[in-house]
């Protein structure tokens, strides 16, 4: 093999390797991975049952949205904590056993149904269940 041919092969191989590496890096950057497209909590989330005693509620982030989890004698309920009226965060009122919006007094039952007030629709509800002293949402 002549020296010039050998150098041509080396340069061609180097250019090819650079092009493949650049293409791979560009595609890896542009093509989202499964972990980067998964929303926080999309696989479900769990809370220790002891963190929310019967009659109480807690606000958590589920799928990146504020969520209110209520634990009653009837079970556990997970609802969007965002009022459909104007987007205020709702609160649990254990004495009235209702969820209420502090902004315009919209009221909801444990399943998110509107009981009164200006809300145009129910609160979004999520599947919630108790499994082995854990509240599983989603």
From TrEMBL:
Name of a matching Pfam family: Rieske
Keywords: 2Fe-2S, Disulfide bond, Iron, Iron-sulfur, Membrane, Metal-binding, Transmembrane, Transmembrane helix
SUPFAM superfamilies listed in its UniProt record: ISP domain
Keyword Iron-sulfur carried by entry: yes
Residues spanning the membrane: 7-31
Residues of the Rieske domain: 44-137
Annotated Gene Ontology cellular component terms: membrane
Protein name, UniProt field: Rieske domain-containing protein
High-level lineage: Bacteria, Candidatus Schekmaniibacteriota
């Amino acid at each position: 093999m002549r020296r010039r041919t050998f150098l041509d092969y080396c340069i061609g191989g180097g250019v090819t390797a650079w092009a493949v590496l650049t293409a791979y890096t560009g595609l890896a950057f542009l093509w989202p991975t499964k972990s980067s497209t998964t929303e926080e909590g999309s696989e479900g989330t769990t809370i220790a049952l002891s963190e929310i005693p019967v009659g109480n509620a807690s606000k958590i982030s589920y799928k990146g949205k504020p969520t209110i989890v209520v634990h009653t004698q009837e079970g556990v309920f997970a609802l969007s904590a965002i009022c459909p009226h104007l987007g205020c965060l709702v609160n649990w009122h254990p004495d009235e056993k209702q969820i209420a919006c502090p902004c315009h007094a919209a009221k909801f039952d444990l399943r998110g149904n509107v009981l009164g007030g200006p809300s145009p629709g129910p609160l979004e509800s999520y599947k919630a269940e108790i499994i082995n002293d854990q509240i599983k949402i989603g």
